[in-house]
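#struct-pred

JT: dropping the chains for the assembly here, can someone run the whole complex?
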Amino acid sequence: MKKATSGKMKKPLTQREELRGKVIDALAQTMDLYGVNYSFGQLYGIMFFEDKPMTLEEMQTHMNMSKSNMSYAVRSLIDSKMASKLKEKDERKDLYAAETDFFKAFQSFFATKLQREIDVMRGALDAVIPPLSETILELNTSEEERKLCLEDLHKLKHAVSYYEWLQQFVNDLQSGAYFDGRHDNR
Amino acid sequence: MKKATSGKMKKPLTQREELRGKVIDALAQTMDLYGVNYSFGQLYGIMFFEDKPMTLEEMQTHMNMSKSNMSYAVRSLIDSKMASKLKEKDERKDLYAAETDFFKAFQSFFATKLQREIDVMRGALDAVIPPLSETILELNTSEEERKLCLEDLHKLKHAVSYYEWLQQFVNDLQSGAYFDGRHDNR
DNA sequence: CCTATCGTTCAATAATTATTCAACGAAGTG
DNA sequence: CACTTCGTTGAATAATTATTGAACGATAGG
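RK: done, full complex below.
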């Protein structure tokens, strides 16, 4: 038996736990805005404060959720580069750690997300621009249709230049170029 | 009657419509990654190509969805600053236009989202740091508890400096500082 | 004023996403 | 080579979110 008489009870939070809770909630809300589900954001918050490698089992007890969901959650955090799996193990259990440097965490997060965006959009643009150009060049395209295609093409070219810029932006973000006058990494 | 014999039929798409569709799909997927629902992202794509003020009714026919949903969708786009309501009206109908400059559109979008993030997090940090500091300063706080609080406080201070940096970043983003060597706004 | 139509709201329903549970293969242990 | 226990998977369920439809106040036109 672990701690007390039976199943579940309202644990009396310490003040510190309560304060942590507020920050974790804000963090989870925030990540919610970027397409990360609230619970998974909470998990990041917990790992952030815990600040030492955690096993799935520990996550389970902290979050009070099934192990399979924790497995899913931690994978999602890893996908966004907000956490990583360590090479060491505790007993037989895998260990995971959150990136606790907010600069690095959100740097990785946005770099990952934006890169995905760029890839998706570039894929579409690369697939669409050639046939559209082709149609414009065709001799038997009606004048009206050619005009419409030209308008679209112009918009897509503008998009291309945007995603070129965005790619550069992501590169700079990853290289740390935007983090110059800062980092009190004491 | 509008166009043909009855209700709904598979309209035979022109090549141009099909190509547009691919780009719209990519756009919608992309926005999906940032917490904007797919349909609403599609609507942005449609408005982007349409490139002239649209009424709710037109959106309805393009998207084949209820007017109430279109009302909701357009409001969501306006919240993210990706579209705006015009002062003029067509008949009695309100007119809306999408921001067609991708630079501006995504600039507004991220500025809005990041600002919300900053506000939420600053709110939590401002609420939590004072009482936490207080506890540390209290004479009757146990040594153990003081140590834990100090660790948390250190993390939160790091977070504060991150959000200060992020605020500056958003300001720069809004001021256009990052868009220097570009903008082929021909 | 009366009528028609706009855009919004609210409650109901449909669709999607999050979560659990049971089962399984892959190690580590003895 | 059996025995655990780990992490993942896939199907079932719960919870949330998207979408609709009906009702309403506002307002422009007659």
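JT: nice. The helical segments of chain B are 15-32, 38-50, 56-63, 67-79, 102-137, 143-175. The longest strand of chain B covers residues 83-90.
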